[in-house]
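Hey, quick one: can you model this chain's 3D structure?
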Amino acid sequence: MALHDDGYTFALADDVTRTPVRYTNRYGIEIAADLYTSKALDETATHAAVVIGPPHGGVKEQGPGVYANELAKAGFVAIAFDPSYNGESGGEPRHVTSPEIFAEDFSAGVDYAGGLPYVDRERIGVLGICGSGGFALSAAQVDPRIKAVVTSAMYDISGVKRNGWENKGTDEDRRTPLRAIAAQRWADVDAGHPALQTPFPKEFRPEGLSPTTAEFHEYYVTERGHHPRSIGAFTITSEAAHINFGELRWLTDIAPRPILLITGDRAHSRYFSEDVYAQAAEPKELVVIPGARHIDLYDDTALIPFDKIVAFYTDCLR
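Sure thing. Here's the predicted structure for all 318 residues.
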């Protein structure tokens, strides 16, 4: 899916309207989002809404818009947003990653949705793709206004930073990057600005890359998912916040609100969804899509189980 003339990686459905909107989160940061509604939406009635966050490092013109487009076709009011400090959203310095603020961005989306006259405040859910899956769950732990949570190809960014891949990290694995981050802070002080991680390359060259990195590059670097505001790099010193934040600790507090976890049987991230499913209280459901890799759940409408997602929200946001 090459970048379209409108700057999006997918085609907008003929029966859907997309409207750029702006609102602020509780830190005063302006959030850039797109509001998706069916052209047949009756604005004299109230409807359910879903707030949708992107993969970690992604933007609203990619996966979130794909999901919002489909949900709007099904009659939901859908909001796809850029996280603070990234995409078209505000916040300085650019490309910060913050587990607390990224979770807050979901609650800010709930604020905005609930302010629309045709949205029922008791019928608002969230949907997080990849890293936003963890942030959506984190938001729901403390924001009971969120009535239902869907994650797709979920990553727990803070959990993996603190505990290592598949929870196999050692104490030294955690302390080593903290020492490097501390040194980087002095370097940033001396330079007068924060350094960024290495961004995505300009060309897709999978040779020499790990399978996971090659898969991400297949999406973000090629015309399939490339977007100029999705650079694949955050400020280096942001990492400390994730290590300090730790894993999702209060998943049971989401109950009795329902959780739907979607992953692929070929997804390298599958264990994140399985861990959350094991830790969360009922009601919960884990759906494993045959043949789906991690990135396929970003945009492959033939594999993403939209019928299941629509049925879940229809039932839970009645």
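One thing worth noting: The two ends are 34 Å apart (CA to CA).
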